[in-house]
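Q: Second attempt. The first request was missing the SMILES, so the protein and coenzyme A are both included now.
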Amino acid sequence: MDQHEKTESDSGSLPEGLTLRALRPSDAEQYHALLQLPAVVDGNPHVPFETLAQTRESIGKIDPTTIAMVATVGDTLVGMAQLSPMKGRRAHAGSFSISVHDAWHGRGIGRRLMVELLDLADNWLGLRRLELNVFADNRAALALYRKFGFEIEVRQRGAVLRRGVLIDSFMMARFHEPAPLMAAPATSALKADATQSNGTQP
Ligand SMILES: CC(C)(COP(=O)(O)OP(=O)(O)OC[C@H]1O[C@@H](n2cnc3c(N)ncnc32)[C@H](O)[C@@H]1OP(=O)(O)O)[C@@H](O)C(=O)NCCC(=O)NCCS
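A: Got both inputs this time. The predicted holo structure:
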């Protein structure tokens, strides 16, 4: 098991054995197949009929600062998520995407991926602002993001072409408070620790 692999054993209606772990090169075929599924194509801006070679290439080009995660049940890849911190003066911000396999919708996998992404963003990377794009007719995704505190900031008219119709897209964002400093240990406790590590009794 990877160091950061997490398996759900007792999480309500979640599929038994649901595991979140880092994307591996060996996931490429299932990752590619997931990207071609109708609901995943409908909810994202990529072009259908990309080749497996293109998918492998794009996996290889994922920026090292991006966290690419997959959800699996046994050997089946049932979902994916990516969190990309930004750089320079946007280093406090990040963007992310989530997709769940069409056959596994409505079983809590999107919510589980979301919880993990937000924990990473808030408690490990210290991102203040998270943002995403979602098509205006993607009811499931909009409901999911709203539940986690995302608000619509901008409506982009006719942002993407889908089956001959120009679809609007929303930019949504959520802010998070800065991380608190740890409570400072009392000076007397530090002195006692130092004395003990020197082998002398206080
Ligand atoms: C959006 C998506 C990630 C949700 O994943 P999921 O695993 O089906 O969602 P969950 O079962 O975890 O549900 C989480 C919440 O999403 C919302 N939701 C899920 N399906 C919904 C639907 N059909 N209609 C309305 N809300 C829905 C609900 O608010 C739900 O909360 P609840 O559990 O308290 O009821 C999934 O539908 C998907 O991958 N779609 C295709 C790709 C895509 O559109 N990705 C998003 C691009 S922006």
